[in-house]
Amino acid sequence: MDQFIEFAVNHPLHVGALIALGSALAFTEMRKGGQSISSAQLTELVNRNAAVVLDVREKADFGKGHIVGAISLPFAKIGERVGELEKYREKTIIVLDAMGQHSGSVGKTLKKAGFANVVRLQGGMSTWTGDNLPVVRK
């Protein structure tokens, strides 16, 4: 650790450039999967009938609690079942997972399939339940 600190002190431009490039890469990769939206923005879009929620958690997790009207399409099956979303092509598709870990890659898959309006719920279902918003249990 001492060597790292010494390097950072002796080469601030190199360290600064590395941080800037890392941040730019992270930002670019996050945007490829769709921008993140808040629970309030999700609610507004769904209430205006301008969006559909795509829940990519496993069926068991979906059954334990999901957003009203959400479509269940497990992460592992997205590639083979993306055609099921054709009827929602004109709407914004809000990708939802447990904590935000899979939604970016699902967003990339949907964008490659030609879906232009893809966003992600920031923090996934854990954010939704953390905000004390309603869930349906099956």
Task: Summarize the model shown.
The chain is of the alpha/beta class and 138 residues long.
- Tell me about the biggest sheet? 5 strands, parallel
Strand/helix succession: HHEHEHEHEHEH
The CATH topology annotation of the largest domain reads as: Oxidized Rhodanese, domain 1
Overall 3D geometry? elongated
The class by helix and strand makeup works out as alpha/beta
Report the uncertain regions: none
Kindly report the spatial arrangement of strands forming the biggest sheet.
1-5-4-2-3
User: So, the CATH homologous superfamily of the largest domain?
Assistant: Rhodanese-like domain
Q: What does this protein structure show overall?
A:
The protein is an alpha/beta fold and about 140 residues long. It has two domains: about 1-30; about 35-130, Rhodanese-like domain (Oxidized Rhodanese, domain 1), CATH 3.40.250.10. It has helices spanning about 1-10, 10-30, 40-45, 60-65, 80, 105-110, 125-130, and strands at about 35, 50-55, 70, 90-95, 120. Strand 4, helix 6 (about 105-110) and strand 5 (about 120) form a beta-alpha-beta unit. The protein is elongated. The chain starts with a helix and ends in an 8-residue tail after the last helix. The relative contact order is 0.18.
